[in-house]
Amino acid sequence: MKRAIILLSIVLSVLMMGSAFAQSHPRLVLTADGVSAIKSNLEKLPLLNQSLQDAIKEVDMDMANGIEVPIPKDMAGGYTHERHKKNYLILQKAGVIFQITGDQKYAAFIRDMLMQYAKLYPTLPPHPEKRSYARGKLFWQSLNDANWLVYMSQAYDCIYDWLKPAEKKVLEQDLFRPYADYLSVESPQFFNRIHNHSTWGIAAVGMIGLVMNDKELIDRALYGLKDDLIDKDQKDNDGGLIKLPEQPGAGFFIQLDFLFSPDGYYTEGPYYQRYALYPFMLFAESLENCRPDLKIFDYRDHILSKSLFTILNLTDSEGLFFPINDSQKGMSYLSRELVSAVDIIYHFCGKDPTLLAIAKMQNSVMLDNTGFSVAMGLSENREQPFIKKSVELSDGPNGDQGGVGVIRAGKSTDELCLVMKYTAQGMGHGHFDKLSFSMYDKGKEVIQDYGAARFVNIDQKYGGAYLPENNTWAKQSVAHNTITINGTSHFEGDFETGNKYHSNPYFFNATDKEMQIMSAKDTNAYPGITMHRTMAVIEDKAFEKPLVVDIFRVQSQQQNQYDLPYYFMGQVMGTDFEYSVPSTLSPFGKNFGYQHLWKTGEGKSQNSNAKLNWFSNERFYTLTTVVSPEDELVFAQLGASDPLFNLRRDQSFIIRKTKEKSPIYISVIETNGHYDPVSEISANSFSNITDVEILLNNEKYTVVTFAHRSGKKWALAISNEDAGATMNHHLQAEGKNFDWIGPFKLTKYD
Amino acid sequence: MKRAIILLSIVLSVLMMGSAFAQSHPRLVLTADGVSAIKSNLEKLPLLNQSLQDAIKEVDMDMANGIEVPIPKDMAGGYTHERHKKNYLILQKAGVIFQITGDQKYAAFIRDMLMQYAKLYPTLPPHPEKRSYARGKLFWQSLNDANWLVYMSQAYDCIYDWLKPAEKKVLEQDLFRPYADYLSVESPQFFNRIHNHSTWGIAAVGMIGLVMNDKELIDRALYGLKDDLIDKDQKDNDGGLIKLPEQPGAGFFIQLDFLFSPDGYYTEGPYYQRYALYPFMLFAESLENCRPDLKIFDYRDHILSKSLFTILNLTDSEGLFFPINDSQKGMSYLSRELVSAVDIIYHFCGKDPTLLAIAKMQNSVMLDNTGFSVAMGLSENREQPFIKKSVELSDGPNGDQGGVGVIRAGKSTDELCLVMKYTAQGMGHGHFDKLSFSMYDKGKEVIQDYGAARFVNIDQKYGGAYLPENNTWAKQSVAHNTITINGTSHFEGDFETGNKYHSNPYFFNATDKEMQIMSAKDTNAYPGITMHRTMAVIEDKAFEKPLVVDIFRVQSQQQNQYDLPYYFMGQVMGTDFEYSVPSTLSPFGKNFGYQHLWKTGEGKSQNSNAKLNWFSNERFYTLTTVVSPEDELVFAQLGASDPLFNLRRDQSFIIRKTKEKSPIYISVIETNGHYDPVSEISANSFSNITDVEILLNNEKYTVVTFAHRSGKKWALAISNEDAGATMNHHLQAEGKNFDWIGPFKLTKYD
Questions:
Q1: DSSP of A363-407, one letter per residue?
Q2: Residue A532's beta-bridge partner residues?
């Protein structure tokens, strides 16, 4: 009998170890099993060991300076901001080091610093900088306070069992619980949104809840605040609505439901997806460790895993994210957020060997169970290449709010990549750039998207916050490679209007290497006007590199001014039309971004095609576009109305059409030849394209032809109203018969 | 007796093999011994084998297209130009391949193409493009015709013994001899100069002479034309004088005497040095092989070897040449000309193992005896690091026409490099940039020199020739980081005046890592005005990176307008003075380069220091400069008066002083902190320098002080009139005593 009771108690305690509240600490990101596995394999796993040694070096250097917990004062980039930020990054690492090495000096360092925070925190009013809609206490915005808690929860978890009960009591009563309350019940406008800010807040509150075994905090994190009293028109300081119309709730599950499309596309774009992934993934890992009953990684058909694969595909061939919406260029899948996401999804979601290829480039792993798995996989040489494919990604919680198309052509080491955007607005960080695109060649921008006007965490530049020019320039339509009508941005630049609508995918087909093609329409950016853009990438041995064909149709009932810019990167080599340059420069317009462009040249073409040839990164590019003699061919350079030199000095070639109600823009973009400044040999530096022509353009069909100077000719026919895959089409144009099935047809005449 | 005669004849023939005219072919660059050594070691020498396989691949691809010898028509970059250029590059390689592989198809290809040239050449008038002062026949300028012959001589040499006598007779009578005559006796203005053009002409004529055993041609090459009837005012199309005043002769020895300083500095600068090195080195190798009696590599205290080491030192940490004078950026020691120079000097001049480190980066060797030696050295792992040092290089045949100072500080992998120019004019390719400088950090330009306004061999840009903007912009003083007075370039931009003068080194000291310093004066750029610039690089643990101190004194009898621009690279982060930006842009002036600058901003400082902080390549830089409230602080951007977008859109910060007769500019340039767009963490992004002050400035002494914001302070004292190393100085300034020996003294107060 006694024996049976003992047995039962063993069984029970084994069972309990699987539930949240019986586990010992660490339990959040590290677990006891994980720690012991790491300890006993460290010597065998150079990547893990290297990550540990790097962490020790960094933490030791910082510890040598002693503890600094300054009274909050500065904006991002300033001293107190960067110090508190460094504190949480260091303590999180110190916690892991303590667990792995057992060296108590790290635990003591964490305790001592947290104790200082426990003394300081109760004395703090909201941060003196009043710029944010949700001011933090340690930082100018609650977002950063949430960052702090996501990391500090992990540090606290690592020393939890080492602390004396009285110490825990002080920390929880004076610091963590009030901290979590401030981020949630006291900041509902921050906590109860569907937005990356809330994801951080939720993870912060949930993770400290799991460490403290505080069911109330955990539930708050999972299901949101019941009552938030948020006004439906309330906005954040970037102009984004706090609550979405008809928002069905809040909390972690709602974030997972609403921030991702079924394909895993995150509506704010990859830059913010990267930022949000860290709390998503860390909180999910914590839940999987403490609350496996929730099966969080299975949720919504494995949405977390899909989200990782999606963001990995939204990168150029160097791994940099496409700068969709507000996005600082240079951010890549080497970021710490992606290191954790790759490790976590690898560990919990089937150990996909292609993720190891990314981890190898990251050359860093998490110091936890998941990083251990990755290091193990790499040490066993299990990695397989991560091949990025052409892909269309839907936007919106139900995948019915437009999307992004990515076409990749050529070898992966020398890839041409085309990104076209026909998503929803992307919330407060969205740009007014319906049907815009960008083009990359071998990982370099050829036709660029500006990205955000911001220098994140650089104090000199407006405290690291969004610059005024982000609104006046970067978000405006003319800052993008899409059409602006009558000098007014899409939706007149109004966020709330834009937020109601999305563009519509028309077709996407990447099955045939000879031609990959995508097409989308927008009917809302300008009331009563339909914009329809089709972009194709053609590979043909007549051309050294894949060819881009851009067909942009507009249908309107009245005559308008249409501007289509191409933000080409590099130096103008030549044009085949005459242009003049002014002796003084004036802004190209007064508002909607035009005030930031100097008009640096203007010409017209007497031919039906105009060519711009430029040079960049040792290659030549040529845009050949169909023009009429009235079209104004404008060169512009960024930098007007920029009193603090906040903008880059990028340039643009703008095709302005004013004489038509429903114009069509047809352009062919070639990548031709190369030039090497060491050998000084140039090859194939001129365009090979001739005779770009509109054979037919009406409501039902558009047929475009173009030729290689050798005489070879192509016709691309598009069905404008029916994208059905099995639909039969027949038409005659200039004596030629075109018969085909499906929405498009490329015909080649040799 | 008979035996003695046989012995004698053996001895004689052995002796004869050492002289020019008894050798068999190849004799020029390849030799029979070399060929057999290469053949028997090919498998062991991967680098040599790779170079051979690369050559075979390239030649085979070209041979597959058949022979094309078009009638000359185009400028550089155009079809006929590039075709004839490719022909000589291919045939030279085909010759080598024939020698090594013995495959006669290569010999036949060379013969057949040369035969076509032998048919075409006698029919040719001078090239239809009339732009050059010395038109060629195959190319628009004789320079390119000479290139052709330098390469074709090698091809001909390789098949010489394989050809039938009748074939040789046709080639020599119809092609080579008239070709050499056209380049020499028929083009004295091209052949008899002291100039890289003539070096090419001389090598071409001399090398074909050596192959053909034509003593007249060889002598012409070595000693020039006796009578040339060149007018003393005759100029080339870049404005350079054909004959130097008091030119003592012509030919190869005169080139060696006059184009290099005793240090091996080439007066036109490293870009042209690289270009000239190929004919210098190839002809020297040919002479060494055929005329070892000349001991050409010993000539002028091993000037050819010195010249190589000098140009290798005139590179940034990536191996790119400093763009001194007319120089297209991007050219580096990876160029084919430097491959041959490194191989040749290695082989003939003592097998210096540091050259193997350069050869390894070049990853290519000559397919001849010299490349064999290098490949052998590398296969034996004999290479040693090539360490670039701080160095002062004299200019002028006697080393008394100014010079160039290069200071390098920090680790070689993270080097700060300062280049200051106080040379002679540099002939026709010289810029009006006395006492200018440029600054590099980790191989990236921080304060740049524009280089040339030219796109070499890019047909779209003026046929690849110098652009008009090279004269109107790139050569002008305001295009450089030096002072322009009263809006007029040095020497009023007049080449002939500039060509008469040079600046003067004052002192150069790089022995103390704590401070390396250089100083130079110019008294001729503006009559009656002395300019004196001193630049120091200070390493101190108070600063993360070496600090640059720039002291630029001017002495004049009257009030002038002084402009000192800094062509900083990157984005403005902030200033500590107020400035305004105009709503329309106008050029900053009318001529001397000012017409190409848009004035984009202007401010004044109420403090005695003005700061400009900028960001580039993940680092921050700050210029702190001493100003008075009257000084105009101007931002400018390049691109005005540029009707064909020929210029880059670079920017400048210009300090204009108008209220003083003899102003002094004092600036401190910091490299501070870093920012990584992946981690988004910025560190040490603000200046640490405060209180830059002029303690004393008179004819005899200048004393400058500056401080770190921690309070540490430095004083730099300079003796302005006596640079004697053992001279005692004593002075008092603001109550402080300064006593020191030598031209300068850095004092630190902790």
A1: T---SSHHHHHHHHHHHTT---------EEEE-STTS-S-EEEEE
A2: A521, A553
Contacts of A335 in chain B (CB under 8 A): 678-679
Residue A7: pLDDT over 50: no
Nearest to B618 by CA among B571, B554, B553, B559: B571
Q: Which residues pair with A744 in a beta bridge?
A: A718
* Closest CA–CA distance from residue A684 to any residue of chain B (Å): 10
3-state secondary structure at position A531: strand
Option in B82, B85, B613 nearest A460 (CB): B613
Mind telling me how many Å the CA of B334 is from chain A's nearest CA? Answer: 7
pLDDT of residue B9: 47
* Number of cross-chain residue pairs from A and B with Cβ atoms under 8 Å apart: 131
- Chain B nearest C-alpha distance from A419 (Å): 22
Going by C-alpha positions, the residue among B77, B76, B59 that lies closest to residue B67 is: B59
pLDDT reading at B744 higher than 70: yes
In terms of DSSP bridges, do strands B562-566 and B484-485 run parallel, antiparallel, or are they unpaired?
antiparallel
Q: Does residue A340 or residue A428 have the better pLDDT?
A: A340
Cβ contact B641–A583 (<8 Å): yes
Residue A110: which of A148, A160, A39 has the closest Cα? A160
Nearest Cα of chain A lies from the Cα of B147 at a distance, in angstroms, of: 14
Please tell me the total number of residues recorded for chain A in this structure. Answer: 750
Best of B595, B680, B686, B688 to mutate (most A CBs within 10 Å, chain A): B680
Pairwise CA distance, residues B399 & B353, whole Å: 28
**Nearest Cα residue to B650 out of B443, B429, B445, B439:** B445
Note the pLDDT tens digit of each residue in A181-206.
999 999 999 999 999 899 999 999 99
Q: What is the pLDDT of residues A699-736, one digit of tens each?
A: 999 999 999 999 999 999 999 999 999 999 999 988 88
A648–B458 C-beta distance less than 8 A: no
Question: Searching chain A, which residue's CA lies closest to the CA of residue B85?
Answer: A681
**CA–CA dist A571, A441 (Å, integer):** 16
In sequence order, what DSSP letters do the residues of B637-648 get, joined into one string? EE-TT-TT--S-
| H/E run at residue B495 | helix B495-498
The candidate with the shortest Cα–Cα distance to A195, out of A158, A157, A224, is A224
Nearest Cα residue to B672 out of B616, B590, B594: B616
Give me chain A's average pLDDT, please: 94
What integer pLDDT is reported at residue A568 of this predicted model? 98
Q: Which residues of A touch B679 (CB under 8 A)?
A: 335-336
CB spacing of A682 vs B82 below 8 angstroms: yes
Residues of A in Cβ contact (< 8 Å) with B574 = 460-461, 644
Reported as a single tens digit per residue, the pLDDT across B471-499 is: 999 999 999 999 999 999 999 999 989 99
Q: Which residue has the higher pLDDT, B236 or A117?
A: A117
Chain B positions touching A574 (Cβ under 8 A) are 460-461, 644
- Closest of A517, A499, A563 to residue A742, by C-alpha: A517
The pLDDT tens digits of the residues spanning B7-48 come to 444 444 434 443 444 468 999 999 999 999 999 999 999 889
As given in the structure block, the two tokens for residue A586 are: 């004036």
Cβ–Cβ gap B682/A458 under 8 Å: yes
Contact B194, B250 (CB under 8 A): yes
Distance CA A10, CA A15 (A): 8
pLDDT recorded at residue B189 = 95
Question: A311 and A277 in contact (C-beta within 8 Å)?
Answer: yes
* Residue in this structure with the two tokens 């005024």, named with its chain if needed: A468
Q: Please give the angle made by the CA atoms of A71, A77 and A82, to the nearest 5 degrees.
A: 50
Residue of B79, B334, B339, B678 to mutate when probing chain A, most A C-beta within 10 A:
B678
Q: Length of chain B, please?
A: 750
